[in-house]
Amino acid sequence: MIPRILLIFIICILTTFSNCVQGQNKVDSLSKVNEGVTINVKDLLGSWVSTDSLKTKIEFKEDNFYVIMLPKIYVDYYRFTKKEREISVMGCAANWPPYSCIVNLINPNTLKIYFYGYDSNEATSEIYVRE
């Protein structure tokens, strides 16, 4: 007979794994829809402010290989891979587990950003307008 503590441990591990897989499926579908989607760099650069009551400010800046989104999240910036004058809408911040986001340019002055982590069940979203 399996000791009770071992059985509880196994159930906890299986439940955690199941939640991670379900979360990845939801986030994976969001990622797959945006695979290969790009935005012109000039359409994204500059300062933006969230439309919620917090009025969170973010800024997109260009360097040689990436466009980065300021401010830093924990220890790093969200980075978006740049190819010529286009960037991937899918960004990532170096961390473990990694933080990811997807930028959806609604119009030249409005964007929606989906934020999620490696083991997230769902992405949260925020609307930003040009400052």
How do the SSEs run, as a string of H and E? HEHEEEEEEEEE
The CATH architecture term is Beta Barrel
- Roughly what is the average pLDDT, rounded to an integer? 80
CATH topology (fold) name:
Lipocalin
Which CATH class? Answer: Mainly Beta
Low-confidence stretches: 14-25
Please state the CA-atom Rg, rounded to the nearest Å: 18 Å
Shape: elongated
Oligomer: single chain
Instruction: Give the strand content.
Output: over 45%
- Number of strand segments: 10
C-alpha end-to-end distance:
65 Å
Highlighted features:
single chain; 2 helices; 131 residues; ten-stranded antiparallel sheet; elongated; alpha+beta; Lipocalin
What report would you give on this structure?
With 131 residues, the protein is α+β, with helices and mostly antiparallel strands. It has one domain: Beta Barrel (Lipocalin), CATH 2.40.128. It has two helices and ten strands; from the N terminus they run αβαβββββββββ. A ten-stranded antiparallel β-sheet has the order 1-6-5-4-3-2-10-9-8-7.
Give a topology summary.
Layout: H1 4-33, E1 38-40, H2 41-44, E2 46-50, E3 57-62, E4 66-73, E5 76-83, E6 86-88, E7 90-93, E8 99-107, E9 110-117, E10 124-130
Antiparallel strand pairs: 1-6, 2-3, 2-10, 3-4, 4-5, 5-6, 7-8, 8-9, 9-10
